[in-house]
Design a protein that fits this description.
single chain; 174 residues; mainly beta
Length: 174
């Protein structure tokens, strides 16, 4: 959707290139039949790097808006890192206020400062899981969110998993 493209022989998905004002996303249907998926473990590799500094190269404006992992009702059109509020969203912001933000049904549950731009342009491993103990996010081997309780966790049939990214006047490749 949007700027998202498949690149390389291994089928990597580039959500947004290092261009100004790009939005790209991908969504996949959850396999659960008529039953909502209440527990899951999503493992993926992510790279957020390679862009430039916007606003005349000012270093405080390096990094783009970021990337999000989502589980919920997703729109048919392209969505960025902050465009979907109706389900679970794990946003990874790479701009001057680099942080991870977890929200569920329009409520921010946790904000963790973290350096999320990929050093040297390398891919990092990301694991997002929800179990009976809560939500956990492992980013490049570091536990950033651990067993976060999500009050009124009630996934619905038809929810999808998705990833979205956006750039603005500051850019990165996602």
């Amino acid at each position: 959707r949007g700027a998202a493209t498949v690149v390389g022989s291994q089928g990597a998905v580039r959500l947004a290139d290092a261009g100004y004002g790009e939005v790209g996303s991908v969504a996949i249907s959850a396999v659960g039949g008529d039953q909502p998926i209440r527990t899951f473990r999503a493992e993926f590799s992510l790279r957020m790097s390679g862009g430039g500094c916007g606003h005349a190269g000012i270093s405080a404006h390096c990094g783009a808006e970021g990337t999000s992992f989502l589980y919920g009702p997703l729109p048919e059109k392209a969505f960025g890192e902050a465009d979907v509020w109706s389900g679970l969203r794990v946003s990874m912001h790479t701009g001057s206020d680099s942080r991870m933000v977890v929200s569920y049904r329009r409520v921010v549950l946790a904000t963790v400062p973290a350096l999320l731009r990929s050093a040297g342009g390398d891919f990092v491993a990301v694991v997002v899981s929800h179990t009976s103990s809560g939500l956990s996010v492992l980013y490049d081997g570091e536990l950033l969110i651990g067993n976060l309780t999500i009050e009124r966790w009630m996934p619905e049939p038809g929810w999808q998993f998705g990833w979205g990214a956006r750039t603005s006047s500051s850019v990165d490749v996602h």
